[in-house]
Design brief:
Strand content: 25-35%
Number of helices: 8
Radius of gyration: 26 Å
Order of helices and strands: EHEEEHEEHEEEEHEHEHEHHE
Distance between the termini: 52 Å
Number of strands: 14
Largest sheet: 4 strands, antiparallel
Structural class: alpha/beta
Helix content: 25-40%
Number of domains: 3
Length: 262
């Protein structure tokens, strides 16, 4: 597209762009072009550009704007993300399917789109899911420098509590001993181990413990984590080799994850 542009040396480009933007003169629908040591900033009104700037006419490409689900649907859908899995919470299955199709058509990165089909339930605290797009419910979630492989159909995990988990982990010091009850795939245990703690982690969900061990390898902390499947009581007894053990003997720092806190 042919448009008026301010031409400046590249080293002056950012300062010029900011000044023109402050004056609301940058043509946001057009791309800025860099060529032969010069920056070309498309402008909306060349007559309003300060006289100190050189204005030239040239071809510039139109800016490609990301397509969002809202652009396609005409309304803003609500959804969450866990790795490359997009999570919906819609009671109307037809509406959920429509949103899933829009997510796939948009620029949102997603391998799988699911809709919640139940509340958290049972000892292992998992949900039922309707898989609307894709096949696998397994993904890799990244959080504060750690990677967590998990399958949302097999384990419980809440990304919403990342900030709270980080707050807790920041209090951990190298050399501490920690016992992570209801550890899940390791959102507390892994970063605590990375902080230098010796961690015992337990969960009744064997699939979660399998993922926790995998995640310990992913994050290079296998030497500082002991992961066991079972109840907190049986795990602590096995760890200490007798029938009764106090929490203070287990660890000076104990965390309890769960549907409201992991």
């Amino acid at each position: 597209m042919h448009a008026p542009c301010v031409r400046v040396p590249t080293e002056e480009g950012e300062a010029t762009r900011r000044r023109l933007a402050d004056a609301d003169l940058v043509a946001e629908s057009l791309d800025i072009v860099v060529e032969d040591g010069a920056l070309y900033v498309p402008v909306t009104d060349p007559d309003a550009v300060p006289e100190e700037y050189e204005i030239v006419e040239r071809d510039v490409p139109e800016r490609e704007t990301p397509t969002t689900p809202a652009d396609i649907l005409g309304f803003e859908p609500s959804y969450g993300r866990l790795g490359d899995v997009v999570i919906l919470d819609e009671d109307d299955r037809a509406r959920a399917a429509r949103i899933a199709d829009a997510i796939v058509e948009s620029n949102v990165r997603a391998e799988t789109v699911v809709n919640r089909a139940s509340k958290v339930k049972g000892e292992t605290r998992v949900r039922d899911w309707d898989v609307l797009v894709g096949e696998s419910t397994e993904t890799v979630h990244r959080e504060y420098g750690c990677e967590f492989a998990l399958d949302i159909a097999e384990v419980y995990f809440s990304p919403r509590l990342a900030t709270e988990r980080h707050r807790v982990v920041q209090q951990v010091e190298a050399g501490e001993r920690a016992f992570d009850m209801f550890a899940g795939v390791g959102p507390y245990a892994i970063p605590m181990a990375k902080a230098g703690a010796e961690v015992v982690a337990t969960d009744i969900n064997e699939a979660a413990i399998d993922y926790l061990r995998e995640n310990a390898e992913r994050n290079d902390v296998t030497d500082r984590i002991t992961a066991t499947a079972g109840t907190c009581e049986t795990s602590s007894r096995a760890r200490h080799g007798r029938s009764e053990v106090t929490e203070s003997e287990i660890s000076p720092r104990t965390t309890r994850g769960g549907p409201s806190a992991s």
